[in-house]
Amino acid sequence: MSQTTLVTPSTCCYCGVGCGVLIEHDGEHIHGVTGDPSHPANLGRLCSKGSTLHLTGDLTARGLYPELRLGKGLARARTHWDTALDHAAQVFADTLAEHGPDSVAFYISGQLLTEDYYAFNKLARALVGTNNLDSNSRLCMSSAVVGYKRSFGSDTPPCSYEDIEQSDCLLIAGSNMAYAHPVLFRRLEEAKARRPEMKVIVIDPRRTDTAELADLHLQLQPGSDVALFHGLLHILLWEGWIDRAFIDAHTSGFDELKRTVRDYTPAMVADICGLRVEQLQECARLIGNAPSFLSLWCMGLNQSSNGSGNNTALINLHLATGQIGRTGAGPFSLTGQPNAMGGRETGSLSNLLPGHRDAANPEHRDEVARYWQVGQLPDSPGLTAIELFEAVRDGRIKALWIACTNPAQSVPNQTLVHQALAACPFVVVQEAFFTTETCRYADLLLPAASWGEKEGMVTNSERRISHVRPAVPAPGEARPDWAITADFARRLERHLRPGQPSLFDFTGPAQIFDEFKWLTEGRDLDLTGLSHAVIDEIGPQQWPFPTGAHQGTPRLYADGEFPTADGRARFVAEQYRAPQEKREPRYPLTLNTGRLRDQWHGMSRTGTAARLFGHVEEPILSLHPDDMQRRQLKDNALVRISSRRGSLVLPAKADPSLRPGEAYVPMHWGDRFLKGLGINVLTQPAYDPLSKQPELKLSAVAVEAV
Ligand code: SF4
Fold this sequence. Notes:
Layout: E1 6-11, E2 20-25, E3 30-35, E4 67-68, E5 77-78, H1 81-99, E6 104-108, H2 114-128, E7 133-135, H3 142-152, H4 161-166, E8 169-173, H5 177-180, H6 182-194, E9 199-203, E10 216-218, H7 225-239, H8 244-250, E11 251-252, H9 254-262, H10 266-273, H11 277-288, E12 293-297, H12 299-302, H13 307-321, E13 330-333, H14 340-346, E14 352-353, E15 357-358, H15 362-372, H16 385-393, E16 399-403, H17 407-410, H18 414-423, E17 426-431, E18 444-447, E19 456-459, E20 464-468, H19 481-496, H20 509-517, H21 532-538, E21 541-542, E22 569-570, E23 589-594, E24 621-623, H22 625-630, E25 638-642, E26 647-654, E27 662-666, E28 699-705
Parallel strand pairs: 6-7, 6-16, 8-9, 8-12, 9-10, 11-22, 12-13, 16-17, 17-18, 23-27, 24-26
Antiparallel strand pairs: 1-2, 2-3, 4-5, 4-18, 14-15, 19-20, 20-21, 23-28, 24-27, 25-26, 25-28
Bound molecules: iron/sulfur cluster.
């Protein structure tokens, strides 16, 4: 490090582990990134993505100036911020006047900072008067939100990363942690090396790098998780490996669940899951005899048409065995995105409101409306991600504002999404990287500041809030997301509430955080003891952190009290349902999609660093060797993959880590890399009825040589 090098502590912008980083820079350019040894999430470690953040500063991909077009057939031209935002305010005001508040929508991102989210929420709910504000977290964590709320009465993951290291038996379901949460996986590997007696169970249809660490890998049929968890509970009951005292003292609904799981005999479950009875018995034995049992899960459970049932069935195992609220024990969802938790805190799903409130609850609406000093908040249900793009396609949404996300790559059923974006009368895209597929559809394209240039808070998977700090100025005229949102909102206020004091006189992220935090007062996530200054002084903290607290809360429910009406956790008795799309002769394979180790989402950032293509250069369809042979395919043969929604041509390769009948492709490539509409042209929009999270991981496909 030279003498002129400055160091700014911040937080990685990729996954939900939320690693602390030290940014090395000269005030103009970022030269290097190292792990922050003082950050509790990573203690100095970084993965390949975090440690190459300084290589992703390619300005040719960045948006530098606002661009506007005044007609669909025209090219966008550079414009001034004032012109851009005045125009947007005029179009939104005209649309609202003609078609009402639910004719516009906001689609935002789990990568926004907490203060950005808050500004968008206030804009949509308090000013525009719509609940049509949803986030790409709908594709990521909404099933976990429903699972926690149904089981515990609140959206509160109870564990800490330390519990992962201290557990005696760790179950990882539907998560390739080794790729998706690499630093956390490294902490687990190190803990298991120190304590080889720790047992690791991995439940995954693929034999992933994560599964290689497992003492027991259950390579189940995709989508059979509820049957598996009920079958495990059946055996735990039969063997007497449950905690009757905990069940009696702290839960409700056990008798109904018992009646449900009675039918899930080992033989039946083994058949549904494609496993052997002995494997189920071994899994139940490991769980039932472990002094402490912790489970981790991610998209494999959440991205399912039974996502919320997957969550509650797994949580049932913890409640039945009393494995919660203790060191090394509890159900612990891994958040995919860096600030999906912050989105939940600020109410950034269409059914939520700030402070873990519900948009459907009149008291909650009144509380927030009073705090914001507006008459009332909208009571009509907001559109969720899939519904939102269907509404855009159908012409019900006339103006759409998209921030920090790329739905023209990431939302399932891309044909519909592209049709919707092309047909929408007015599309605003607020984005740091002007290379994304969605930018193509923007009538107004607004350059946003990005990691290393903007400030705010993020909350990681263990409820820990960390400070994201700027090191260098944003390029060109790019501005922080909260500032763009507030500037637009003030201009829209001139149309909607002329002469009244502005709701958006924000002075900066610290002031926005202070405004937001009082909406959490007395709630399950109480943040009122925190501020930017407090976190700078005492370091990243886990909520709840109420006024007067001196430290965060590493573990919840230690007293067996749950935030339900009767203080008891609830067993949820949901039946197993088969995935929506079944294999059939025309589509005989099940397609699964997922992350690569070195890429992030649609690759807008990681795709600018050549080094990150060293691991995997291009998307390849993986098939079981038997399925390759049946089609007389050799490795790297080009194949056409077709689903009911579209098709794609990719090279194929034999991969014995898959079950026969299954196919796998990384999720990252959109149509700027591939012919056709990218990977998600294949995936299906069916969703869980409660969480509305789509079943991205289970689509029926056909594969043929081209
Ligand atoms: Fe960033 Fe996640 Fe890697 Fe940590 S594990 S460095 S948060 S991508």
